[in-house]
Amino acid sequence: MTNHDEAAAVRPLTLAWVSRHLEVGERIVRTEALHGGITAEMRRLTVGTRDGGTRDLVLRTFVNVEHAEDWLNREADALTLLAGTGVPAPGLVAVDPTAEQCEYPSLLMTHLAGRAVLSDEGLETRVPLLARQLVAIHALRPAERPRAYVALTTADSVVTPKGADAAAWDAAIDVIRQPAPPYEGRFLHRDFQPGNVLFDDVPSPGPAGARITGVVDWAQTSWGPADLDVAHCSTNLALLHGPAWGLRFTEAYEEAGGVLAAAASERLYWQVRDGLAFSEEVQLVAQAWREAGRAELTRRAVEERLDAYVTALMDAPG
Fold first, then answer.
1. Rg for the chain (alpha carbons), in Å?
2. What are the helix (H) ranges across the chain?
3. What is the mean pLDDT of the segment spanning 146-174?
4. What is the distance between the alpha carbons of residues 267 and 181, in angstroms, rounded to a whole number?
5. Contact predicate 188/274, CB 8 Å
6. pLDDT band at residue 4 using 50, 70 and 90 as cut-offs
7. Which residues contact 24 (CB under 8 A, 6 or more apart)?
8. Is 44:34 a contact under the CB 8 Å cutoff?
9. What is the rounded CA–CA span in Å between residue 318 and residue 68?
10. In this structure, what DSSP letter does residue 115 have?
11. Cα 21–Cα 78–Cα 112 angle in degrees, nearest 5
12. CA 263, CA 181: separation in Å to the nearest integer?
C-alpha cells in the first residue's frame, strides 16, 4: 500500500477492519488525507479491484471526540435512510461506532464524485442549486424520525467580536433569550453548507453546467424547523462570500418551494440563533476554510463579516 502522505496512513486495526469489508480479491492501493473537516479525520481509500480497475471509499475517524458514538450512529442511520431517496449521499459500507474493532470510532462509506466549492466564482449559479437541494432534503418523511435538534448556544455563551456593533449584538442576544417559536418539524441535515455539498468537477459551459453530485456529513441529522437548516447555510454563505449572500439564500430557498416560518420575528429567531452560534467557533471555521484554499479568511476577516451579517439581520425590516 502506498500513502499519499504520512497523515493519510490508516492505523493497523482500522486497516484490518476496512479490509474485511472489501470484496474478495480487493486491496487498498492508496490512501489520501482529505482536508476541510473540523471534528473528524477523513481519508480517501483507493481500492484495487479484481478486474484491474479501482474504486474509492471514504473513511471517517473520530479521534478523542466526545460524541463520536452518537454521531456515527446517526450518520449510519441517515445514510441507510437516504439510499434510494434521490438525495445524493454516500452509501454506508460499515460502521464501528464504539471502536470495538478499530483504534477509534470509524465509518466507511462510498466515495462520491465532485468537490466542495468555496470560491466566490459561480456563486450566482450555485446558490439556487443549494436551495433546491435543501428543499428536497426537508421533503423527506422518514418512518422513524431522527432525534430533536439541539441548539447549544445561549445568551451567555455568545462571544461578541471586538469592535462589533454593540447595540446590534445586544439586541440579537436578547432575541435568543426568548423561548424558541413553535415550528413544523422537518428532516434536517443540521450542517448543510457549501463545505458539505459536492459539485461536478467538470461542469459543461454555462449556468446549466453546474450540478450537485452529493451531500456529505450526515452526523448531526435532526428533526426540527426548516428555518434552522436555512439559517445555518445562510450564515456560512455570509461568512464565506459576504453578508448579502446570507440574506439571499433565504430568498432562494423560498423560490425553490421551501416553506419557512410565517412571522418575521420567528424567522429572525432562527437566523440570529445560528449567526450567534458562529461567534463561538470563528477560529475553527476560519482555519478550516483557509486550509481549503481561502487564505484571506483570517479570524479577523470572518469576525468582521459575522458582525456585518448580524447587524444586517437586526436592521432588516420586520
1. 20
2. 12-20, 68-82, 123-138, 166-177, 226-241, 243-255, 264-278, 282-291, 299-315
3. 95
4. 9
5. no
6. very low
7. 50
8. yes
9. 40
10. B
11. 60
12. 10
Average pLDDT (69-83) is: 95
Mean pLDDT value across residues 24-31: 96
Cell triple for residue 139? Answer: 421533503
In contact, 213 and 112? CB cutoff 8 Å: yes
Enumerate residues 6+ apart whose C-beta is below 8 A from 56: 44, 45, 46, 47, 110, 111
Residue 181's closest CA among 75, 63, 267? 267
- What number is the average pLDDT over the span 240-257? 97
Torsion of CA 125, 128, 134, 135, to 10 degrees: -150
Residue 112 phi, psi (nearest 5): -100, 145
**Is residue 190 over pLDDT 80?**
yes
Task: Tell me the pTM.
Answer: 0.92
> Residues 6 or more apart from 195 whose CB is under 8 A from it?
36, 116, 118, 236, 288, 289, 292
228-242 residues labelled b (16+ CB within 10 A) or e (exposed) = bbbbbbbbbbbbbbb
The pLDDT-based confidence of 2 (bands split at 50, 70, 90) is very low
User: Who's near 134: CB < 8 A, 6+ residues apart?
Assistant: 189, 192, 229, 230, 233, 253, 256, 258
What SS3 class is residue 107? strand
CA 14 vs. chain centroid, Å, equals: 25
Give the strand pairing for 27-34 and 2-3: parallel
